[in-house]
Design brief:
Strand order of the largest sheet: 3-2-4-1-5-6
Largest sheet: 6 strands, mixed
Order of helices and strands: EHEHEHEHEEH
Strand content: 15-25%
Structural class: alpha/beta
Length: 155
């Protein structure tokens, strides 16, 4: 599972991206993301997050709700790619991972793994099945926070 950091609601932000934090809307989206994963029975043994605050805070909210282990990894800093994913998968021997990070890295990586072009919305989820031997993958699900919210009202 790839998850992009939730919305940050900082319209007039003048500092670096590294300093932005999740605000009220982002916390709500993060919780909805966790509830969606719980409701759809997506198995997550470990959440690995970028060191940037937005991704880390999003991942922490999801990890708390799902009662899942959380780990920060510098491989997920901006510039994350298939080579870094391969290294990450060697370090963390879990089969069912959620990786919290950033665009455009995730979109480019999904394209490299699957051949499919995507743009992962803030607070969105992409479920990608990856064959570690070949580093080829299949996109199983791409969902925005708006669709996550809508799915919760339909169940």
């Amino acid at each position: 599972v790839l998850s992009r950091n939730a919305n940050d609601d900082w319209a007039d932000w003048s500092k670096t991206d590294d300093e932005r934090t999740v605000k009220k809307r982002g916390r709500k989206e993060s919780l909805q993301m966790a509830k969606f994963l719980e409701r759809t029975k997506v198995s997550i043994a470990l959440i690995i997050t970028s060191p940037r605050q937005l991704a880390a805070q999003t991942a922490e909210i999801v990890a708390q709700k799902l009662k899942t282990k959380l780990s920060e990894d510098d491989h997920l800093a901006p510039g994350f790619n298939v080579a870094k994913l391969k290294a990450l998968l060697k370090i963390h021997s879990y089969r069912d991972l959620m990786i919290a990070g950033h665009e455009p890295d995730f979109g480019e990586m999904v394209y490299a793994l699957t051949g499919g072009a995507i743009k992962l919305s803030k607070g969105g989820i992409a479920l990608v099945q990856v064959e570690q031997e070949t580093m080829r993958g299949r996109l199983l699900l791409l969902i925005s926070p708006r669709e996550i919210k809508r799915s919760s009202t339909e169940s």
